[in-house]
Design a protein that fits this description.
By secondary structure, the protein is of the alpha/beta class. The protein has a single domain, classed as Ribonuclease Z/Hydroxyacylglutathione hydrolase-like (Metallo-beta-lactamase, Chain A, 4-Layer Sandwich), CATH 3.60.15.10. The chain is 28% helix and 16% strand. The strands form three sheets. The protein has a six-stranded mixed β-sheet, with helices on one face. Strands 7-8-9-10-11 form a five-stranded mixed β-sheet. A two-stranded antiparallel ribbon has the order 12-13. A hairpin with a 2-residue loop joins β12 and β13. The longest helix has 22 residues, at 312-333.
Length: 334
């Protein structure tokens, strides 16, 4: 089954059971046609989004997020399919986690293009600070357990990175505005177009259980809060989901999982906002009750890690299996 607006043709899996039925029913919305000025491509476990109609001219389109490390050529090739040799006007980042900025420096240099992000993301995009440490004890899945192995060093974009305009405008995207949706990261933003109620949500919420390696690879569709292992402030995350639910979006493209739309999306998003502490906030974990504290320079303080009795042997076996599956997926996607 093809999802129009996507560059690929993945088969949809069964809807997973979830504590809230509305969240599972949101998978009914995966067969949408995106607005013709939007497309996405999956780079292993994460999506990047292209804004601009096919054939848009030079500096007339925008890339949102840049996927996993090693995917610059793949992202550029898909851009050529859609826009020919036209370069983007900008790269806009929802946030700076490794799976959203993996190709940012190479693409920014290739296209000689500015990169925009929220000012509270600047420490992690200019080499000043790492993000708060991930929490491998949450979510109960291999992706969470492997999170300490993910790239941790910040990227350093130098003078290529710029702060998003204070008035909420999105460079190169007329009619859109950026919304502060912190929690998953200090300066996380989502992009919103009121005219057709289209939302690019980043990781403020996602449409697959990202803590699970199997779900991350197969994209089994279900609505979830932000990936648990990289979320250091759960109160802010809940407030961000509540803000996005109040928009009543018609279409949502998330950083992980397939796009969703219509009443099923809205019902699921309201259910997530209503039941956030029961279905999204982890039952335990480093940041469950005490957030990391950050400022414009990066980390100020983090709560101590919680005891974790998970064996290193099991973690190593899981790492080998998951990395093998991810490598196979990357080869297929390329």
């Amino acid at each position: 089954m093809t999802t129009p607006g996507s560059f690929e043709d993945p088969a949809l899996g069964d809807v997973a059971l979830h504590p809230s039925p509305e969240l599972a029913r949101a998978a009914d919305a995966t067969t949408l046609a995106l607005p013709d000025d939007l497309a996405f491509v999956r780079c292993a476990i994460v999506n990047v989004v292209y804004y601009g109609r096919p054939g848009a001219g030079d500096r007339q389109w925008v890339l949102i997020d840049t996927g996993m490390p090693g995917f610059a050529g793949h992202i550029a090739a898909k851009a050529r399919e859609r826009y020919g040799d036209a370069r983007p006007a900008a790269i806009v980042l929802t946030h700076g986690h490794f799976d959203h900025v993996g190709a940012v420096r190479e693409l920014a240099e290739r296209w000689d293009v500015p990169v925009y992000a929220h000012d509270l993301e600047m420490p992690y995009l200019t080499g000043r600070s790492k993000y708060p440490p991930p929490d491998p004890t949450v979510g109960g899945g291999a992706m969470a357990r492997l999170s300490p192995l993910f790239p941790a060093d910040p990227v350093h974009l130098g003078d290529r990175v710029r702060t998003l305009p204070a008035d909420g405008a999105v460079p190169g995207m007329p009619g859109w505005r950026w919304l502060a949706t912190p929690g998953h990261s200090p300066g996380h933003v989502s992009l919103w177009r009121e005219s057709d109620r289209t939302l690019i949500a980043g990781d403020a919420f996602v449409t697959t259980k990202q803590e699970s390696a199997l779900a991350a690879i197969t994209q089994r569709p279900e609505l979830h809060g932000p990936p648990m292992y990289f979320t250091p402030d759960w109160d802010e995350s809940r407030a961000s989901v509540e803000r996005l639910a109040a928009l009543e979006p018609e279409v949502a493209i998330t950083g992980h999982g397939r796009p969703m739309h219509g009443e099923a999306l809205r019902a699921a998003l309201h259910a997530l906002a209503r039941d956030f502490d029961q279905v999204a906030r982890p039952a335990h974990g480093r940041y469950r009750d005490r957030p990391a504290v950050t400022d414009e320079n990066g980390i100020v303080s983090v709560p101590p890690p919680v005891p974790d009795n998970f064996s290193r042997v099991a973690a190593g076996v899981g790492a080998a299996v998951v990395l093998g599956l991810v490598a196979r997926t990357m080869r297929r996607d390329r």
